[in-house]
Specification:
Largest sheet: 2 strands, antiparallel
Radius of gyration: 21 Å
Structural class: mainly alpha
Helix content: 55-70%
Order of helices and strands: HHHHHHHEEH
């Protein structure tokens, strides 16, 4: 529900900001859009933190948790607690860095200059948050790293994440805009892929008893449903891929500011 309301606020802000010429009106909705976007990244990262750590699923498949805790390392779990919020802050830094590198690649002038400066600062915020999140995950959920060590092929994902993190900084310093953005893509994809590899076959771990966890086996639909889903998923992903291919083809190159318009 929080994600839903944040999505609604983003859409409303884009729509309403141009309904009046008053600068205060525009600034209010621009701030609303920015705040909703920041909270969106934070909440999605927090959700990932809950998936990694696990939730108190009982034998009936239900669980209940407080929304907030005292944010201290303790036995009490919350949707927003010290660990999940740490994952959320890392997600916010990584996604903000990703967006800044995209703006450097796609814009010119003052916007590009601000994005380049922001990307440099965010990289130094992302790196320590990544290290802290990794150490906290090793303490909260050591099973994830045990699973990764048991699957040597996942080392390639770790190396790709490291290469992506270094590439973001290295290519950005050289002024190579597209390679820097692609390095950010590789970093995010490899981090998510390594997390999924460490989680599998668990989809949602139970902190009460591992036998109560939702896994790829006990959470799967019937064989007929899986076959139908695979067909429609493939078709849907093909359409999505074609859509984004055409989108980037239509808007390829730099986006330049028109002096008669409000912005990019």
């Amino acid at each position: 529900m929080i994600v839903l309301w944040l999505l609604i606020l983003r859409g409303i802000a884009i729509e309403l900001r141009s309904h009046h010429e008053n600068p205060l009106w525009r600034e209010f909705w621009d701030f609303t859009f920015s705040l909703a976007s920041v909270l969106m990244a934070l909440v999605l990262g927090t959700a990932l933190g809950n998936v990694i750590r696990g939730v108190p699923i009982d034998q009936d498949g239900y669980f209940a948790m407080p929304l907030f805790t005292d944010f201290q390392p303790s036995c009490q779990l919350g949707i927003f607690d010290w660990y999940t919020l740490l994952v959320g802050l890392f997600a916010l830094a990584a996604l903000a860095e990703h967006g800044a590198l995209y703006l450097v690649w796609k814009t010119t002038g003052p916007v590009q200059d601000r994005a380049r400066t922001l990307a440099r600062l965010l990289w130094w915020a992302m790196l320590p948050s990544w290290i802290l999140t990794t150490l906290a995950t090793a303490w909260v959920q050591p099973q994830l790293f045990g699973t990764l060590l048991a699957r040597p092929w996942t080392l390639a994902l770790v190396l790709l994440a490291l290469a992506g993190a270094v590439g973001m900084r290295l290519f950005a310093r050289r002024g190579q805009e597209l390679p820097a953005f692609l390095s950010s893509c590789a970093f995010l994809l490899s981090i998510l892929a390594a997390t999924m590899a460490g989680q599998y076959p668990d989809l949602l771990r139970s902190t009460l008893d591992p036998t109560f966890s939702v896994t790829a086996t006990n959470g799967a639909a019937g064989s007929y449903g899986l076959r139908v889903g695979a067909v429609w998923w493939s078709f849907g992903m093909l359409l999505t891929g074609l859509y984004f291919f055409n989108l980037f083809r239509w808007f390829r190159g730099k986006v330049r500011l028109d002096s008669e318009e409000q912005g990019y």
